[in-house]
Specification:
- The structure holds 2 protein chains of 2 kinds.
- Chain A is an alpha/beta fold.
- Chain A is built from 6 helices and 6 strands, in the order H-H-H-E-E-H-E-H-H-E-E-E.
- In chain A, strands 1, 2, 3, 4, 5 and 6 form a 6-stranded mixed β-sheet that branches.
- In chain A, helix 2 packs parallel to helix 4.
- The two termini of chain A are 47 Å apart.
- Chain B is α+β, with helices and mostly antiparallel strands.
- Chain B is built from 18 helices and 14 strands.
- In chain B, the strands form 5 sheets. Chain B has a 4-stranded mixed β-sheet with strand order 10-11-3-14.
- In chain B, strand 1, helix 6 and strand 2 form a beta-alpha-beta unit.
- The radius of gyration of chain B is 27 Å and the shape is elongated.
- Chain B starts with a helix and ends with a strand.
- The chains are: A alpha/beta, B alpha+beta.
């Protein structure tokens, strides 16, 4: 009889535990409450850690490049060359447009603070940026670039493109990103600086 | 004798209560099809706003702008239902946002690589796991999100969706699935072709339009476009799995001089306007009891001259033996039904009073029925196998409980009671846990027609009629770009 009673108690306990386990609810947190919040990889898109990495991979190269040195020389003898930020071309299978805009904004900050160029604000041209994003891919053609450059009064564009190699095997995914940051001479369409960086993200089980 | 009878009654009563408790605990709530029925019915009569409100209620949010705090269990699928409704309302930005979230979260069912346990989880509700979408839903998710981006004129986003669709097609589908889903594959590739064509990436346009043609999307307009794209790009279609299907078009292109992109734009892209009409709703799943004899038949399939049995010999033997003893009489299994929903398919489009003939039609429902029929043998085998294991476990637990009571010095009556209770609990749990999973994308359209015309810049009146109901809209056309007009409110 005692065994039967134990068996019943165990059953009730298991039921209560099972019901209790379903009672957990999600909660919002901030990084100060959960210090490891930024460490988690939440998706195959770019997060802050990825953007920092891509930024660090590129900005030093850009600021020490020949074209940046030329801006310095030009600025010493005549009005500083005008540089505009042009949206990056997303050729990937992920919607990373907003993250690429964030990355360009970071470049913009350093170009303003650490280069001799005059920078046309990225934020002040939302209509043009939106228009470019709606346009065909040949918006990046030299002729079209020259047209946009004239509209903005810019001699150089800082831009780039991102490609990916995306694969799926069963439930697992891997996206290898290849990013090219470029400085383009608006008048000639010539690429005056280019740097490549790579990054891979995956979903493994 | 009286004591034994009273004990028997108490035992029956207690066992019934415990059984019900087990059922209530394990089955939790109504099935998914019950859950979305009201929204489905509102959509069926064109009350899209009401349908969105009902889904928002289920998502526990106040408005479509809000996202649910929790995206577990059914929430991802509900978000997909809402996105489809938002698209029907012309809220393309919100629809694209919701579909994008679903795309990141939704898992899919890979029949080819899943074991019996995983397949059985797909057949039956499983609280521990989220919804696993079949192939056609994954493909339609990217195809309909392409519609959102094209309708907004966001070509970059449309190209991303086109690439995602291609990834799904390339890495997810096996040959059998490609064979039963040509319409859906054709539809997605056609829209992808349109996205790249509008982006002036003509080689990719040729590639995707070529695939659409290969999957059977045929129209005089597409034929002309393909020949001219081959002339513009020199694309040789070597990467197409069935190149032979476009060979005659390649030969025609070769027999003509090369074409300049500007000529192509002038001929095909000036005032280019796509009108999509989505009607009806796809069959949804509901629970059905299949007699075991029939279930055993369903668990096998005939391919050519050979009969293929998906159930192992051992499970087949157990199932037959349990059926003979009256312990296994039926299998609870999901079936597709169109009860209470519009079939769609009957639509007319007029622009400024001129009747358009639809160039391309995709019968989504037909493909889904075929794809489901393909899956039934393997899923039914997994379901029978699971049921056999559970009944055998029930028998074993009953025997163990009786033996335990006997060891504790219980009377033969107590042994019987404990054994019976254990058996009933397991049986109750079995019945509850074997509630068929009726989750599916219920707002998906049954039919999609595409008409393609050239219109001048300015405002035009588009009048869509579905089963006698009218949806008339004034639309602004820009003849320098691709104009995509979507009508999916009337089903």
């Amino acid at each position: 009889m005692k065994n039967t009673s134990n068996w019943s108690s165990s059953l009730i306990l298991i039921l209560l535990l099972a019901l209790g386990a379903t009672g957990c609810s999600p909660q919002y947190v901030r990084d100060t409450e959960e210090p490891r919040l930024d460490d988690y990889t939440m998706s195959l898109r770019f997060d802050r850690a990825d953007l920092e990495r891509l930024y660090n991979d590129n900005i030093k190269e850009l600021l020490t490049s020949n074209v940046a040195r030329q801006w310095e020389r030009d600025a010493a003898s005549s009005p500083a060359p005008v540089v505009a930020i042009f949206p990056m071309r997303n050729e990937t299978s992920e919607h990373i447009g907003p993250q690429l805009d964030t990355l360009l904004s970071k470049f913009e900050t350093d170009l303003v603070n650490k280069s001799s160029a005059s920078v046309v604000s990225h934020e002040n041209q939302p209509d043009l940026i939106a228009e470019i994003k709606r346009q065909q891919s040949d918006v990046y053609d030299p002729q079209r670039l020259a047209q946009y450059g004239r509209q903005l009064g810019a001699q150089y564009f800082v831009t780039g493109k991102v490609y990916d190699v995306a694969e799926r095997v069963k439930d697992e995914r891997r996206v290898q990103y290849f990013m090219f940051v470029q400085v383009i001479d608006v008048s000639t369409g010539e690429i005056r600086f280019q740097n490549e960086s790579k990054l891979t993200k995956g979903l493994i089980r | 004798m009286c004591d034994r009878f009273a004990l028997h009654l108490k035992t029956r009563w207690l066992s019934a209560v415990l059984g019900l408790l087990a059922v209530a605990w394990l089955s939790g709530c109504a099935s998914y099809s019950d859950y979305v029925r009201e929204a489905q019915q509102a959509m069926a009569v064109g009350q899209v706003t009401q349908a969105v409100d009902l889904v928002n209620e289920r998502l526990e949010v106040d408005r479509a702008l809000d996202l649910p705090a929790d995206l577990g269990k059914n929430q991802v699928l509900l978000l997909l239902e809402r996105a489809t409704l938002l698209q029907a309302m012309g809220e393309y930005e919100l629809a694209a946002r919701d579909m994008g979230i679903v795309d990141q979260r939704m898992e899919w069912l890979d029949i080819g690589t899943s074991d019996a346990v995983a397949l059985a989880k797909f057949v039956y509700s499983d609280d521990a796991g989220g919804y696993r979408a079949p192939a056609y839903e994954r493909l339609m998710l990217n195809a309909l999100n392409l519609v959102n981006y094209l309708a907004m004129g966001e070509l970059e986003g449309a190209r991303v969706e086109a690439r995602r669709f291609h990834l799904m097609e390339s890495y997810f589908l096996d040959e059998n699935e490609r064979a039963v889903l040509p319409g859906i594959l054709g539809f997605g590739n056609y829209l992808s072709g349109a996205a790249f064509e509008a982006s002036r990436e003509y080689e990719n346009a040729a590639r995707f339009y070529g695939r659409a043609w290969m999957y059977g999307m045929r129209s005089a307009d597409l034929r002309e476009r393909l020949i001219d794209l081959f002339r513009v790009t020199g694309y040789n279609a070597n990467d197409l799995p069935q190149r032979s299907r476009v060979e005659s078009l390649l030969a025609l292109a070769k027999s003509q001089p090369a074409m300049r992109p500007a000529e192509y734009r002038e001929k095909h892209q000036q005032g280019d306007t796509l009108v999509l009409v989505q009607t009806g709703m796809v069959p949804y799943r509901r629970a059905n009891r299949v007699p075991i004899a029939q279930a055993l038949v369903y668990s096998s399939a005939v391919y050519g001259s050979s009969h293929y049995y998906y159930l192992s010999d051992q499970d087949r033997m157990h199932a037959t033996s349990l059926a003979a003893r009256g312990l296994l009489t039926w299998i609870n299994f999901p079936e597709l039904t169109v009860e209470g929903i519009p079939h769609g398919g009957n639509s007319q489009v007029r622009i400024d009073g001129r009747l358009l003939s639809p160039a391309l039609r995709t019968h989504v429902s037909e493909q889904i029925v075929k794809a489901w029929a393909e899956k039934v043998p393997v899923l039914m085998a997994a379901a029978i196998s699971r049921m056999v294991v559970r009944i055998l476990a029930g028998e074993a637990s009953s025997a163990v409980a009786s033996a335990g009571s006997k060891a504790a010095g219980g009377s033969s009556n107590t042994q019987a009671v404990v054994g019976l209770l254990a058996g009933v609990l397991v049986e109750g749990a079995m019945v509850a846990a074997d509630t068929p999973d009726t989750r599916s994308w219920t707002m998906l359209p049954a039919h999609i027609t595409i008409s393609r015309v050239k219109l001048s810049s300015g405002v035009h009146t588009v009048d869509v009629q579905v089963h006698g109901y009218r949806d008339q809209q004034s639309v602004r056309i820009d003849e320098t770009r691709l104009n995509v007009l979507n009508f999916s409110r009337l089903r």
